[in-house]
Amino acid sequence: MMGKKSIEMMVGGFVLLGLGGLLFLALKAANLGSFSGADHYTLQARFANIGGLKVRAPVRSAGVNVGRVTAITLDAKTYQGLVTLQLDNRFQFPKDTAAKILTSGLLGDQYIGLEPGGDDKYIAPGDTIAQTQSAVVLENLIGQFLTGKAGDAGTDGGAASTPSAAASGAPK
C-alpha cells in the first residue's frame, strides 16, 4: 500500500513540474515574463506611423534585446505615435541614437531597432529619441509599385505603338 502512494506522489510531482515548465515557456514565448531583476529606465520616441507595433514588443540593438515597448499613444499636438520604451540600465546609448520600427522576417512581428550614434553624451532617462524612422507598411509599398507600373505602362504603350506602325510599312 505504501509503494502505491509514493508512486502517486512522484507522478503528481512530475505533473506539477511539467505544468510549471509549460507556464515558463508560455511566458517567455509571449515576451511577458521578465525574470531578470535588472533596473530599467524609460525613453520616448515619436513615429509618423507605428504600423503593427504592439506593447511588449522587444527593443533591440545589434540583434540583442535591450528592452521592451511599454506604451503606445497618440500625441494630440503632433498627431504622431508616441512610443514609450523601457531599457535595461546595463545598456546606455548616445544622444544621437536612431530608433527604427523593423520587422523580424518577411511577415514577422515588429520591434524597435536602436542604432547608436557617435555622441559622447548619453540619453538621460525620460528623454525623447530625436531620430526615428517609421514602419514600412506593406500595403503602401504594393500601392506605390502598382501605380508606378501603371504609369510606366501608359507612357511606354504610346511610345511603342508609333515605331511599330512605321515599321510595319503602313502607308503614310
Shape: extended
Distance between the termini: 111 Å
Number of strand segments: 8
Structural category is alpha/beta
Q: Helix content range of the residues, please?
A: 25-40%
How many whole angstroms does the radius of gyration measure? 27 Å
Give, in order, the helices and strands: HEEEEEEEEH
Query: How many structural domains?
Result: 2
Strand content: 25-35%
Largest sheet: 8 strands, mixed
Count of helical stretches: 2
Arithmetic mean of pLDDT: 82
Strand order of the largest sheet: 7-1-4-3-2-6-5-8
Unreliable stretches: 157-168
Q: How would you characterize this protein structure?
A:
The chain is an alpha/beta fold. The protein has two domains: 9-36; 39-139, no CATH class. 34% of the residues lie in helices and 28% in strands. It has an eight-stranded mixed sheet with strand order 7-1-4-3-2-6-5-8, with no helix packed on it. Strand 2 and strand 3 form a beta hairpin. The protein starts with a helix and ends in a 5-residue tail after the last helix. The model is unreliable at 157-168 (pLDDT under 50).
Summarize the structure.
The chain has two helices and eight strands. It has helices spanning 2-29, 138-167; strands at 40-47, 58-61, 64-74, 81-88, 98-103, 110-115, 128-129, 131-133. The chain has an eight-stranded mixed beta sheet, with no helix packed on it.
List keywords for this structure.
alpha/beta; 2 helices; 34% helix; 2 domains; 172 residues; eight-stranded mixed beta sheet
